[in-house]
Task: structure prediction
Amino acid sequence: MRSNEENGSTVLERAFRLLEALGPEGHSLCLSELARQARLPKTTALRLANELVRLRALERTGDSYQLGLRLFELGATVGRQQRLRDAALPFMEDLYEATHETIHLGLLDGLEVLYLEKIVGRRSSTVPTRVGTRRPLYCTGLGKAILSHSDRKLVNAVLKAGLTRHSPYTITSPQRLTQELAQASKEGVAYDQEEYKLGTCCVASPLVGRSGLAVAALSVSGPPGRFVPEHAAAAVRTAALSLSRALQGVSMAKLAVH
Result:
C-alpha cells in the first residue's frame, strides 16, 4: 500500500532506506543521523526503526542502531552467491598462500562490483574493504576485470553513467578506460593503481563462463610499495582460470545480481 508520506514511497521502501543507511560500512548510527542518511523525518525513522528492532532486522544499543543478526542469517542462505563462494574459497586460500596479501571475490551488481568474500592476513589487514560492500566497476581491479570480458552494452552503460573521480589516480577519460579494458582482455588481468582509494592497489582476473563473458572476478590487493600488482598477476590469472573451469557446470549469467 502506498501513502502520501515521503513522495509516495511505500513503507517497505522507507524501511529499506534505513537498512541501506547502516549497511555499507557496518556503522552504528544514532536516530538523527540514521534519519538524515535515509532521507526520512525523524518521527518516521523512529517508528520504522523500532519495528525493525522488533523483527530483529535491527539491533538497538542505547541511542544507536545497527544491523541485526537476523539479516546475516537470511543473507547467508542466498543460494546463487553461496554456491560461488563455496566453490571459490579453496582457490582463494591457495592464492593467499602464494601472495600473503588480501584476496577478494567480487560479483557483478548492476554498474558496481559486490564484494562476496575476503581472505586477509595480519600484514594485509590495512585494505579497507568489507564483505557485502559495493564499489564502482571502472575504478577497481575486480570491476575492470569483469568489464574486460563484458558485452559492449555494459561498458557503454558505465561510460554513460560517468566516471566520477574517487582519488587523484581515478581514470576519468572514457578513451583511456576503453584502452585499459582492451589490454586487460588480452592479458587476462586488470589493475587498480590506487584508483578508488589511496593506499590500495590491486590485480584481478575475471571468472569467464562458456559464453566468454564474466560476471565475477578474483583479486589480490595490498599497499603500494610493499605490494607490486604485476608480481601477483600470474598467480591470480591461474587461480581465476582454474575456478572458471570448476564452475563450468554453473550458469555464470545466473550468478549476476540484476
